[in-house]
Design a protein that fits this description.
The complex is a heterodimer. Chain A is an all-alpha fold. Chain A has 20 helices and no strands. In chain A, helix 9 (186-218) packs across helix 20. The chains are: A mainly alpha, B alpha/beta.
């Protein structure tokens, strides 16, 4: 189920909101858990069993860690827990890529036999809930939290529908108290509504519109049909698409959390305003970088084992970040690409950036923009074709009029996207208008306008007409 | 305090938007327009059964999406905003032209834009195939004493290209249409009727009288009359030129493009006129199945039995063809079967095809 669907807005959410308000207190958490499992099962009727398995495994590991006598015993349980989570993730997400790579390696080694590449459908959200499960097990092992005795609480933590599908990745210790005791106030609810509406608008009114043009452009045979202008338009619009899609979804998640009395941590902080790749990763998908820092970078030694080891650790983390986003070489390349710039900035370039506020911003945008091309156009060859056309647009003859792909609507939304990526927010702050406008009558009118327009857009998306009657 | 009131207001408004639509719809749906212009059967409520449980959520959401509260209103609202405020088409296959003109950009239902800009051309091998298939038809028909005529109706994008958006540029000289016309003229003896010149001449003489619909891909009755006259002329039958006749306005139904766009103010075909021919011939329908066979006898008309394998562009021509042919049979390509031609043994077999379907010529229809 998607948040940006009318089934969610008009059927699921009202029912769950109603239930969470009228049911007796001690039934609310079980109700939310049941609703979350239903939410997941609705999108993945069979794969919901994987999530239930994940919940069971992590719950059991947590308890075992508490009960284990020796340090060795605890280490064993930790290993088992982490391995099972990773195995789940590996089997359902990375097996295909692994077999493909193996086949390539075998071919290079001269061995003829090739294994059949399995085609496994990806369970939605698996990258998120396995990471949440692992974070629970590790935090219990580190004695940062106590193991949860009630399975329902672990179930709610792992499956809670606002953050289940697209994050933010919530750490157990940030949420366990709220699960047990939280108050639902009008103020928090209203804040949640505000956040949710902005997120919905970002996804439906901006990201989806950008996606139309981007998909049409990247669907072309890039080596033969794309020119420089098209390549640039596609890259810029994708940069907007992915930011508004991802941050919009996080906004909706955070907003929904608030509606049920939960405070999740921020996941995005205007990343395109960054002045370095290092800063970018403190502002983009914050919960993921936090997770990798906590559970990979620091255990590997972080920056405490010498300069060379630091760079290696960084590259490992970026490799994992890349592959976490998708099982494909394009994603790996994207991750390492960011890792490369991260290292370069640590080698001294970062100091240069700090001294040049304008140049650093341009640098960041260009680096990130080109990085997105690898991310979106997973096929490496095609990505390079697109990038060549961006670097030397004059060398490629105009193929098609750009108006075919970039409509006036898309241009308008593109401008809004640019303004909204942090520019207007900074301006409002500069003039101290942000606090004054928050929950002002003006903003409420604006919010309702965004909500209603988003609903109209969602309805329009269900329209699928034919020129002759489809028999 | 003021802030608390705003928060309450926002919360209340949000809850109204969340809970309200289903309630309101339950009360108002009878009085609101729910007719579909989508030209497809809307998804049905799926059966809830254990065996089909896995597909149920998707099927249910498809049903729900097709039966949303206020669906027509919401779609019309968003599409109208897109079309009128953002000057952007709400359907990828509909091009917004100037002055309210709509054009068709399809890659799967014929190839309008490729015909216009020449971006897709027939290869030499394909041209050979077309030549062979048409010449083959001509020969097989000739063996039975049946004449063969190919009728090509021009695309609207060609006739009214001045209303296309500027970025689409000028019509290409080298295009599929010209390839076919040249092929037929230079390499075959096949009779071709392509009424472009007649249409253009009338259009230039009477520019306010549209010969094609603004919001539909087809020519209207006036354009159809000119096409019919050209075809009849090729068959040796003369009828009055259009400017000597009167016309009368008729109710215009939906255009084929209007339903796709679904935007306010552009829901009608417009400018529908029937040509008053005052024919003395008495037309008797034998069969009238729009997607299949339409057959007419006409008393007093010149003796000619004509069999036309048609597409939708014949529709506007049929009233004027049938009254001037003693026996006319129109078979829509949907139900067309070559066998019927041999059984009917007409005097003339006409292959009527609109320009955007020219690629079908690569495969013989007889």
């Amino acid at each position: 189920m998607l948040f940006s669907s009318l089934f969610f807005l008009w059927v699921f959410l009202p029912v769950v909101l109603l239930g969470s308000r009228i049911l007796p207190r001690r039934w609310v958490n079980p109700f939310l858990t049941a609703a979350s499992l239903f939410f997941y099962a609705w999108g993945e009727p069979l794969y919901v069993l994987i999530m239930l398995t994940s919940i069971a495994v992590n719950y059991t590991c947590g308890l075992s860690l508490d009960r284990a006598a020796s340090e060795d015993g605890r280490k064993t349980v930790l290993t088992v827990g982490v391995v099972i989570n990773l195995l789940l993730l590996f089997c359902f997400k990375y097996l295909g890529l692994f077999v493909q790579t193996l086949n390539s390696a075998l071919a290079v080694a001269g061995i003829g036999a090739a294994l059949r590449v399995p085609e496994i459908a990806l369970p939605i959200g698996i990258s998120f809930f396995t990471f949440q499960g692992m974070s629970y097990v590790v935090d219990v092992y580190r004695r940062e939290v106590q193991a949860q005795k009630r399975p329902m609480v672990v179930a709610l933590y792992i499956s809670f529908f606002p953050q289940l599908i697209a994050g933010p990745i919530v750490r157990y210790k940030d949420i366990c108290e709220q699960i047990e005791s939280r108050r639902m106030t009008l103020e928090q609810f209203a804040q949640g509504v505000r956040r949710f509406i902005y997120g919905l608008g970002k996804k439906v009114l901006i990201s989806n519109v950008m996606a139309k043009s981007v998909d049409a452009l990247y669907a072309l045979d890039i080596s033969r049909e794309m020119d420089g202008v098209m390549a640039w338009c596609a890259a810029i619009m994708y940069a907007f698409q992915i930011y508004y899609d991802f941050s919009g979804y996080s906004d909706m998640a955070i907003g929904l959390g608030k509606m049920f009395g939960f405070e999740f941590l921020e996941n995005f902080n205007y990343p395109y305003l960054s002045r370095s790749i290092r800063e970018f990763w403190r502002r983009w998908h914050i919960s993921l970088s936090t997770w990798f820092r906590e559970y990979v970078y620091i255990p590997l030694g972080g920056n405490r084992k010498g300069v060379k080891r630091t760079y290696l650790n960084l590259l490992i983390v970026f490799f994992l970040t890349g592959i976490w986003h998708g099982a494909g070489y394009g994603f790996i390349l994207w991750g390492l690409y960011h890792g490369f710039f991260s290292v370069v900035e640590r080698l001294g370039f970062g100091r240069v950036l700090k001294q040049h506020p304008v140049f650093s911003r341009i640098y960041l945008l260009i680096v990130v923009l080109f990085g997105w091309v690898f991310f979106r156009v997973e096929n490496l060859a095609d990505a390079l074709f697109a990038i060549k056309r961006m670097i030397m647009p004059w060398a490629y003859a105009v193929q098609r009029p750009i108006e075919e792909f970039v409509t006036p609507h898309a241009v308008l939304i593109g401008v809004c996207a640019f303004v909204g990526m942090g520019v207007i927010q900074q301006l409002l702050k500069r003039f101290n208008l942000d606090e004054r406008l928050r929950f002002s009558v003006l903003e409420i009118i604006y919010l309702m306008f965004v909500l209603l327009l988003s609903i109209a857009a969602l309805a329009s998306n269900t329209y699928n007409p034919f020129i002759y009657f489809k028999f | 305090m003021k802030r608390k009131i705003s928060m309450l207001l926002l919360t209340a408004a949000f809850l109204v938007v969340l809970f309200g639509p289903h309630i309101l719809w339950g009360m108002l749906s009878d009085r609101l327009e729910t007719e579909s212009v989508e030209k497809r059967t809307l998804a049905a409520l799926p059966d809830f059964a254990l065996e089909t449980l896995e597909e149920y959520p998707k099927a249910f959401e498809a049903y729900y999406n097709d039966h949303l509260p206020f669906r027509n209103l919401l779609i019309r609202l968003y599409n109208s905003l897109q079309v009128h405020l953002f000057r952007t088409s709400s359907h990828e296959n509909v091009i917004l032209g100037e002055d309210g003109w709509l054009f068709y950009a399809s890659r799967t239902d014929g190839t309008t834009m490729e015909c216009y800009d020449g971006s897709v051309l027939f290869s030499d091998e394909e041209l050979k195939r077309i030549e062979d298939s048409l010449v083959g038809m001509q020969e097989r028909l000739a063996e039975q004493g049946i004449e063969f005529v190919v009728f090509i109706a021009p695309n609207k994008e060609r006739m009214y290209s001045e209303y296309l958006p500027d970025y689409l540029g000028e019509q290409a000289e080298e295009c599929m249409l010209n390839q076919v016309l040249t092929l037929l003229k230079e390499r075959t003896s096949i009779r071709v009727v392509y009424p472009y010149d007649d249409l253009m001449a009338y259009k230039q003489a009477y520019p306010e009288q549209n010969l094609y619909y603004k919001t539909d891909t087809h020519w209207n009755d006036m354009g159809g009359y000119i096409g019919a006259r050209a075809l009849l002329s090729e068959l040796g039958i003369d009828i009055a030129p259009l400017d000597q006749l009167d016309t009368t306005a008729i109710d215009g139904d939906d255009g084929d493009l209007t339903g796709m766009l679904n935007a306010a103010g552009m829901m009608e075909k417009g400018f529908s006129k029937k040509v008053i021919t005052n024919t003395p011939n008495h037309v008797q329908p034998v069969e009238e199945n729009y997607n299949g066979r339409m057959e007419y006898m006409s008393e007093g008309a010149p003796q000619k039995k004509v069999f036309i394998r048609r597409d939708s562009f014949s529709t506007a021509m049929i009233p004027y063809l049938r009254e001037n042919l003693s026996h006319s049979i129109f078979m829509h390509y949907i139900e067309y079967d070559a066998q019927q031609v041999w059984e009917e043994k007409p005097d003339v077999f006409v292959l009527e095809i609109v320009e955007r379907y020219l690629r079908w010529l690569r495969n013989p229809v007889l």
